[in-house]
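As the next step, I selected for study one protein, both as residues and as discrete backbone shape codes, as given directly below:
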Amino acid sequence: VLGEVLAEKCIEVGILEATNSDWQRQRPRLYREHLSQLGEEYFHRGKQRLEGLILWTQGRAKKVRLADQ
């Protein structure tokens, strides 16, 4: 959502030029296409990171070294 708002504002003030006038209507299809190309590992790692952030907000995060990943 933040990226969408930022892009729209950049187009509005002239920092970016929308080369495709139909980009907003095509956006959901393009998102689906992009997400379908991501592998299972991408989503697994995202879930692990989210779980870590939830623990961190509760003050229960474990310290993990890069070698342990």
